[in-house]
Amino acid sequence: MVALVQSMVGDHPARPVLVLSNDPEAKGLVRAAEMGIPTAAVDHRPFKGDRAAFEAALLEPLSAARPDIVCLAGFMRILTPGFTSRFAGRMLNIHPSLLPKYPGLHTHQRALDAGDAEAGCTVHEVTEVLDDGPVLGQARVPVLPGDDAETLAARVLLQEHRLYPAVLRRYAAGDRTPVTL
Question: Shortest CA distance to 167 belongs to which of 104, 125, 107?
Fold first, then answer.
């Protein structure tokens, strides 16, 4: 989130209008407020599995902010097709694997367990299918001897901070050509 906000300056075609979290204690909310970005939090825990009610609550601050593009960054809740369809063609997410490989969780360990020579991250459009939307960019990193999930994740994260802002800039300008780093 910080890398995205910091990139949206000068001639960038987008500006941040809201940072929204499902965790009221998220450090990103503090960082966003420090950068002058409006923030909101909708704690998912009181909804106890009632996704429709949680998503309705999410829509309140999101709708009030009227974003042209919704960028998910560290939002670890699965969104329903009813929610994602409201933002079809306008919602992006970053995933720590080279999709279509390893959708879901534990991506770095899965790459290591498979003996992959490289790993990376993917920015994609969000659709109703988890981690399955059109790929808008990928960055690759080598899997090094002695890597564990933590060391691999740290190298991938560095690329995430480069890739997502590059994809957002292009996407906000109307260019869906994939970015490759």
Answer: 125
Structural domains in the chain (count): 1
Q: Which range marks the domain in which residue 25 is found?
A: 2-180
Encode pLDDT of 136-173 as tens digits. Answer: 999 999 999 999 999 999 999 999 999 999 999 999 99
Contacts of 77 (CB under 8 A, 6+ apart): 22, 44, 54
Q: β-pairing, 91-95 with 19-21? A: unpaired
95 is an active site residue? yes
Average pLDDT score over the chain: 95
67 within 8 A of 164, measured Cβ to Cβ = no
> What is the CATH number for 9?
3.40.50.170
| DSSP secondary structure code for residue 37 in this structure | -
Find the helix or strand (DSSP H, E) in which 62 lies. helix 51-65
Task: For 85-134, give the DSSP string.
Answer: HHTTTSEEEEESS-TTSS-SS-HHHHHHHTT-SEEEEEEEE--SSTT-SP
pTM of the model: 0.93
Selecting among 44, 95, 108, 124, the annotated active-site residue is 95
Q: Model confidence over 3-29: pLDDT tens digits? A: 999 999 999 999 999 999 999 999 999
pLDDT of residue 170: 97
Q: Is the dihedral of CA 81, 44, 164, 97 positive or negative?
A: negative
